[in-house]
Every structure is written in structure tokens, then in C-alpha cells.
């Protein structure tokens, strides 16, 4: 059974830490978290070393999932990640094209997947928008709900 997933967004401080935390929470509820390696990363170098965005922290604390990523510090994806992870999830089309362009020239293990493609609510067209310039908690709550539905459906499809 494949057991490693990397969640990726532009800066690794807003969307991908929330997705990582949702995925870990679902695995913990299923009693299989110990079987998985789960992490998150950025396509850019914008925020390397930064903690998750404070608005995202607030949202994750509200949903009691911040403990899964409270020690996370933003990092940029590496070529090694493409051979170490079974699944690499991007959040939007820009992430997906960056992931394709940053991939090693040779073949690699990871499947590159748009996380929102697993969301049964199709109103966002599978895109989890960047909330960085979002002005309130609502934007982060929308990201959280999209990530939770998508991660839940992905795990159901896998089992
Ligand atoms: N870029 C863009 C962009 C476009 C549309 C919506 C959001 C963003 C946006 C902007 C950010 N940082 C501000 C610009 C950073 N500097 C850009 C020029 C190089 C030096 C760094 C973000 C930081 C962390 C996570 C997500 C972010 N997302």
C-alpha cells in the first residue's frame, strides 16, 4: 500500500500545511497514521523557514488539527521528493505547472495530483485558491473545508 504524501502550494505557509494537517487527522482517525509519511512543501522560496500563516493557525486550532503541523517550517520541494513520495498534491493550476517544470528529467515515483480534483463539491473546479491576500478567516475556512473533503475522498478511493 502506498504510504507517503507531500502537499505543495506556492509558499508552504497557507494551503499546504492545512492540507497536511487534514490528511494526518484523517489517517489518525483511521488508526493508520504510523504507516504514512506526510509532509508539505513550497514551489517557491518566498517563505523558507517560516511558520504556518497565523490565519491558518487560527483555523487549524479551531478545528483541533494544528498539533499536526505546529512544528512545521516552510521548505521548498526538492528533486529527491519526486522519488521519495508516492503522491505529490498541488492546490491550483500554477502549482501543477510548477511541479511539472521542477520535476527531474528522468522518470520518478510520485504521481502529481491536483488535490481539489478529489473534492465532491465541484463549484471551485478543483482549485484551492491562494488565501494569502485574503482579508478574513472565511478564506482560510474555505481552504480548510476544501482540503478536508478532498483528503477524505482521496483516502476513500484508495481503500
Ligand atoms: N506572488 C504572488 C501571489 C499572487 C497572487 C496571490 C497570492 C500571491 C502570494 C504572494 C506571497 N507573498 C508576497 C510576494 C512574495 N514575493 C514575490 C516576489 C519575490 C519575492 C517574494 C505569498 C507568500 C506565501 C504564500 C503565498 C503567497 N502568495
Strand-helix topology:
Elements: E1 4-9, H1 15-30, E2 37-42, H2 54-62, H3 79-84, E3 87-90, H4 93-102, E4 111-114, H5 137-158
Parallel strand pairs: 1-2, 1-3, 3-4
Helix pairs in contact: 1-5, 2-5
Bound molecules: ligand 6LJ.
Description of the molecule:
The chain has about 160 residues and is of the alpha/beta class. About 40% of the residues lie in helices and about 15% in strands. The chain is built from 5 helices and 4 strands, in the order βαβααβαβα. Strands 2-1-3-4 form a 4-stranded parallel β-sheet. The longest helix is centred in the C-terminal third of the chain and has 22 residues, at about 135-159. The radius of gyration is 14 Å and the shape is globular. The ligand N#Cc1ccccc1-c1cc(NCCCN2CCCCC2)c2ccccc2n1 binds near residues 10, 47, 132 and 133.
Which structural class do the helices and strands define? Answer: alpha/beta
**Overall pLDDT, averaged?**
97
The beta-strand count equals 4
Outline: globular
Largest sheet: 4 strands, parallel
Low-confidence parts lasting 5 or more residues at pLDDT below 50? Answer: none
Helix content: 25-40%
* Attached small molecules: the ligand N#Cc1ccccc1-c1cc(NCCCN2CCCCC2)c2ccccc2n1
Q: What is the straight-line distance between the termini?
A: 9 Å
Strand arrangement within the widest β-sheet reads 2-1-3-4
Oligomer: single chain
